[in-house]
Specification:
Layout: H1 19-53, H2 57-83, E1 89-91, H3 95-104, E2 107-113, H4 118-137, E3 142-147, H5 152-157, E4 162-163, E5 165-170, E6 173-179, H6 192-200, E7 234-235
Parallel strand pairs: 1-3, 2-3
Antiparallel strand pairs: 2-5, 4-7, 5-6
Length: about 250
């Protein structure tokens, strides 16, 4: 054998193993691990059921007290939210008021709109209807609206280039936006439930589709004859303005 050549030595027991045998060995390990995981889960569930079935009066009293604390805390929050205007859908006058709303509320959802054309007025009215319903349903979030063309500095800094735009803030930061109707199915006939699900996707409202009861509406999507393609609704004059800052932090 040449001094530049080396022998290949397989680990013991693998020299005669075929590819099929190796695959069977891997599959057996996977099945074994899955069975162990299932058994562990079953044990955990059995323990929880056993604990629930064997609660004594003292345990029930502890659970009741914890629940009462949670309810009182929620009631306090509800009172605080109502005082700040939660449960209503309000128009704000200018950027100063917008900053105040964002700073004093953990979460806000704001519609930026304009009413300079018949189309823009129509689309604003569509969103107003849905925002009004959701503001009453989701007390945890402040719902507001502002005329973008009357607050050009704010719209420019927030990079509002397509109207209508729904901008969501959380803890004084912008964290989500819905531009036009494309994210809502590309139709002006989208349902309140569709908007609700979209807003809940990133936590702008508290919404879990597996737990929360859907709003009573016949359908989620219904493509309108006037907008079959789902194209963007219309652009604002503000699209011509350029802003080099990302401006995620909206502290002034």
């Amino acid at each position: 054998m040449s001094e530049y050549m080396r022998e290949v030595h397989l680990p013991p027991g693998q020299g005669g193993m075929s590819q099929e045998q190796k695959l069977q060995q891997v599959q057996a390990k996977v099945v074994s691990q899955m069975m162990r995981a299932v058994k562990d889960t079953e044990k955990a569930i059995d323990k929880e059921i056993h604990d629930l079935e064997n609660l004594n009066k003292g345990d029930l009293e502890i659970i009741r007290r914890k629940r009462m604390v949670q309810l009182k805390k929620k009631a306090g929050k509800m009172a605080e939210w109502r005082q700040k205007g939660h449960g209503t859908y309000s128009e704000i006058a200018d950027q100063k008021q917008w900053f105040d709303e964002v700073k004093t509320n953990e979460r806000t959802i704001c519609l930026f709109y304009r009413q300079t054309t018949n189309a823009s007025d129509k689309y604003t009215q569509i969103l107003d209807k849905h925002m009004q319903v959701l503001s009453q349903k989701h007390m945890e979030t402040r719902f507001i609206k502002i005329n973008a063309e009357k607050s050009p500095f704010l719209a420019q800094r927030l990079n509002i280039v397509l109207l209508p735009t729904i901008l969501c803030t959380k803890n004084n930061y912008t964290h989500d936006r819905i531009e036009g109707f494309d994210p809502l199915g590309g139709t002006e006939n989208f349902s309140t439930q569709t908007l609700r699900a979209r807003l809940g996707k990133k936590g702008s409202i508290d919404y879990d589709p597996l737990v929360d009861k859907p709003l009573a509406q016949k359908e989620l999507y219904n493509t309108a004859k006037t907008n079959k393609t789902g194209a963007a609704i219309y652009q604002s004059k503000l699209a011509q303005l350029k802003d080099d800052d990302d401006w995620d932090d909206i502290s002034d």
